[in-house]
Design a protein that fits this description.
The complex is a heterodimer of chains A (366) and B (412).
Chain A: H1 12-20, H2 30-37, E1 47-57, E2 60-67, E3 79-86, E4 89-96, E5 108-110, H3 120-127, E6 133-140, E7 153-158, H4 162-174, E8 181-187, H5 196-205, E9 209-215, H6 216-219, H7 227-230, E10 238-242, H8 245-258, E11 264-267, E12 284-288, E13 293-297, H9 303-309, E14 328-337, E15 343-344, E16 350-351, E17 356-365
Parallel strand pairs in A: 7-8, 7-10, 8-9, 10-11, 12-17
Antiparallel strand pairs in A: 1-2, 1-6, 2-5, 3-4, 3-6, 12-13, 14-15, 14-16, 14-17
Chain B: H1 8-11, H2 14-34, H3 37-62, H4 67-93, H5 118-131, H6 162-171, H7 173-182, H8 184-188, H9 194-222, H10 224-254, H11 264-267, H12 272-282, H13 290-295, H14 302-307, H15 316-329, H16 339-352, E1 367-368, E2 372-373
Antiparallel strand pairs in B: 1-2
Helix pairs in contact in B: 2-12, 2-15, 3-4, 4-10, 5-7, 9-10, 10-16
Classes of the chains: A alpha/beta (366), B mainly alpha (412).
């Protein structure tokens, strides 16, 4: 089944009312008719209406969305899967939420950066207009501000890596908690700093917020060693990093060597499965009973990938464990979650094939 | 059973069949490359149109005890049900729109306003019928196991009644299809487990109850005590009109005189090209206006539909000239005719084959542009060009990944 938006929070009376008239609409649902009047009214999935688009830089824009139903909230730093139709086809992408969680108007924002060869970002950055309807999927991500706010914070970001951090800064601002916060942000030119104006204004208004912009086109990249100069007390700060992989790797190594590694939090925009140090088992044979295919996994290869390598055409969506498009019913055996290393599996359980590897031989209806 | 030595399938060499298959694959790939907004707009507008027709029809039928409201409401509801079954339900459940990745318009979770459950119908139709099309003893849709539609089917006395239950079947077609999809015979033959049969039976029971409650209890009740009966007869009429229409279109798909049937031996180990040829020979088109094609779910393009069951129906008319051109070059027939002609040959067969005996009707010869299929040219030296070693290739047509499973021979 293709990926669908998140289940919206609908008042119980409304769901009861819709259920009570289902007999008139079967095999369709009352929703199928209601959404012809307003596509946001469906209770089957959460949709949103684009209300405003703000150009941040020549190739990034903030898209403000009003969810059709009450926004269930998010932790600052999390990302949201957004589904849009481009040339007739639904595409889903994950974008960091850049808005703070509990806005009075209930709106949410994402700030996509244009990827020229992509499908979704060109639509959102160039073609989307207020009034466009988008599908809103699951909110995920462990790169979040701790509930108990640390006394001193350090953010390091580069390029569009600022997006999850912006949500954190905005929610700190809303909580009036910008007491001792440092942001070291890199972009090629001042012109290309996403949220440049807002960040600079924040720095002027809040003495507790210090902003350093590293314009790499002019001054070169930010090296880990620069930390001593730009933020001498970096070792005592809870640090949040978001940016390209090589920056994260260099910084992580530096923290490991010179600082306190557990205080470093990083956002990697890659699926977090199959990391070399993640616990994994021995794998096993996979019997894809509906597709009629047998596959083998070495214990680090997800069921989905093993099945595809064996020649099966299998359903998939995000390939990172979020969207549940790829689920199959486990008939026998156990699986290991490649993100957490946790082993589970009861007969009849629905398992996500993109993030689970077989733990011993399994049979899965897929 | 006699083998058909005159079958055009036997006339083409394996190389010619391969070349024929490659040319069709190329058409398929070209169309799938081109699918986009235009196609999406078409199917979403059809879905909206169906819902509008049904809403207006149902609202009018609240006042069904007034004659004009009864007539107008019944007409709109019939039209809505026809559109929903033919152009939307059948085609969506074929996976024709799965490429859109739309969570609603998708073969894995679509259900239609008909007695069959989506699950049972997809198996019986998409898999059994579309894979074993017109193979005697394998294609359960050949006479639906209750009619003798081909002289090679053994006669038995029950068939004497077929002219009568033929008419009955047309009126209750959706229920006939539901019974057919259940395939109770498979349990007797030990091909289906009791548990599987029970699962299907429960599904059918649930679906039937909901369909009956909707059309014969819930909506009539909305019309109040005095309007109950009028609304009920209106809904019944709409269902019968839809049933008769579906019966007509579907019986004209494979039973007109022009179509060939095949023995299991003929289809044994067939190549991809031979699969295409069998689909071509086993199906027949119906000529008609654009409106006719919409209301028949584009099954007037049965030939194109059987070549590419997963291609959006909007594209059948577009590829028809290219399929005809292929038929002409490979000296194959292109079965087609107006509705009245196709339907009357079907009815003649049903009447004739109720009695023992009967012979195969003459088949059209190869298609020629301008004057359709000419007289049979059996024995004439083949002028079909020998294919060179080159030809378009690439990956197979997009196979639906969920809900629909049609197995066709893979490409080399």
């Amino acid at each position: 089944m293709p990926e669908i938006g998140a289940r919206p929070r609908v008042p119980a009376w409304r769901l009861r009312l819709l259920r009570s008239v289902r007999a008139f609409f079967t095999p369709l649902l009352p929703d199928d008719y209601l959404e012809l009047i307003n596509p946001l009214w469906t209770t089957r999935e959460l949709r949103g209406r684009i209300e405003r688009i703000e150009r941040e830089t020549p190739d990034a824009a903030t898209v403000w969305i009003r969810p059709g139903w009450e926004w269930p909230g998010h932790e600052p730093g999390q990302y949201l899967r957004v589904g849009i139709v481009v040339d007739g086809i639904h595409h889903w992408r994950a974008y960091s939420l850049t808005s703070e969680p509990d806005r009075a108007d209930g709106w949410i924002a994402i700030t996509p950066k244009l990827v020229e060869a992509g499908k979704v970002s060109p639509f959102l950055v160039r073609d989307a207009r207020p009034g466009s309807i988008v599908r809103l999927g699951g909110v995920e991500g462990a790169f979040v501000l701790p509930r108990a706010l640390p006394d001193r914070l350090l953010f390091v970001s580069a390029g569009s890596g600022i997006t999850p951090i912006m949500s954190m800064l905005r929610s700190l601002r809303a909580a009036d908690a910008l007491d001792d916060v440092v942001l070291l942000h890199s972009a090629r030119t001042p012109h290309e700093v996403i949220f440049g104006a807002e960040l600079r204004e924040l720095a002027v208004r809040h003495p507790g917020f210090r902003l350093h912009e590293q314009h790499t086109g002019h001054r070169g990249r930010l090296a880990p060693e620069d930390l001593e100069r730009l933020c001498p007390d970096w070792r005592e700060r809870e640090a949040f990093l978001s940016g390209p992989a090589d920056m994260l790797d260099a910084m992580a190594a530096y923290w490991e060597r010179e600082g306190d590694r557990p205080r470093l939090h990083m956002e990697r925009f890659q699926p977090v499965i199959g990391l070399p140090d993640a616990p994994h088992g021995e794998g096993g044979d996979i019997d894809l009973s509906v597709a009629g295919v047998r596959a083998v996994s070495d214990g680090t290869t997800p069921i989905l990938v093993a099945g595809e390598q064996a020649g099966a055409t299998l359903p998939y969506g995000c390939r990172m464990g979020i969207c549940h498009t790829c689920v199959g019913r486990l008939c026998s055996g156990q699986v290991r979650d490649l993100r957490t290393g946790k082993v589970s599996g009861l007969p009849g359980e629905m398992v996500r094939t993109c993030i689970n590897a077989p733990e011993g031989d399994i049979e899965i209806a897929l | 059973m006699a083998t058909m030595t005159d079958s055009p399938l036997a006339r083409l060499s394996p190389e010619q069949l391969d070349a024929f298959g490659r040319e069709l694959d190329a058409i398929h790939d070209e169309i799938f490359e081109d699918l986009g907004d235009r196609d999406r707009r078409y199917i979403t507008s059809m879905v909206e149109m169906h819902r509008r027709l049904v809403v207006i029809g149902r609202v009018l039928l609240v006042a069904a005890r007034y004659k004009p409201a009864w007539v107008a409401g019944t007409s709109l509801l019939s039209l809505g049900k026809i559109l929903e079954n033919m152009e939307i339900g059948h085609n969506v459940m074929h996976g024709q729109w799965d490429w859109m990745n739309d969570p609603q318009i998708n073969s894995s979770n679509w259900d239609w306003d008909a007695a069959s459950t989506a699950e049972a119908w997809k198996y019986a139709h998409n898999y059994i019928h579309h894979t074993y099309t017109n193979i005697l003893g394998k294609d359960r849709d050949l006479g639906y196991e209750i009619m003798r539609i081909d002289p090679d089917q053994t006669w038995n006395p029950v068939y004497l009644l077929q002219p009568a239950y033929n008419v009955l079947l047309a009126a209750v077609f959706e229920w006939g299809v539901a019974m057919h999809d259940l395939d109770l015979g498979a349990i007797r033959r030990g091909e289906k487990s009791k548990a599987a049969a029970w699962h299907e039976l429960k599904g059918m029971g649930r679906k039937a109850r909901r369909q009956i409650v909707k059309d014969y209890v819930a909506f009539p009740a909305l019309s109040g005590r005095r309007g109950f009966k009028s609304t009920l007869t209106a809904n019944l009429t709409a269902n019968v009109i839809r049933n008769v229409w579906a019966y007509m279109i579907i019986f004209c798909g494979h039973f007109p005189d022009q179509t060939y049937t095949f023995t299991e031996a003929e289809a044994e180990g067939e190549s991809r090209g031979a699969f295409y040829v069998r689909q071509l020979l086993g199906s027949a088109n119906i000529e008609g206006s654009a409106l006719f094609h919409v209301l028949s779910g584009n099954l007037g393009h049965q030939v194109e539909h059987h070549l590419f069951p997963d291609m959006p129906s909007t594209r059948y008319a577009e590829i028809a000239p290219r399929v005809k051109d292929l038929c002409e070059r490979y000296e194959l027939p292109y079965n087609t005719g107006p509705l009245f002609k196709q339907l009357s040959t079907v009815q003649r067969t049903i009447l004739r084959l109720a009695f023992p005996g009967g012979s195969r009707r003459p088949k059209p010869g190869p298609y020629h542009a301008g004057h359709g299929s000419s007289a049979p040219s059996i024995g004439a030296p083949s002028t079909v060009p020998d294919p060179g070693p080159t030809g378009p290739n690439g990956s197979g047509p997009e196979q639906p990944t969920d809900g629909v499973r049609v197995t066709i021979p893979p490409r080399d």
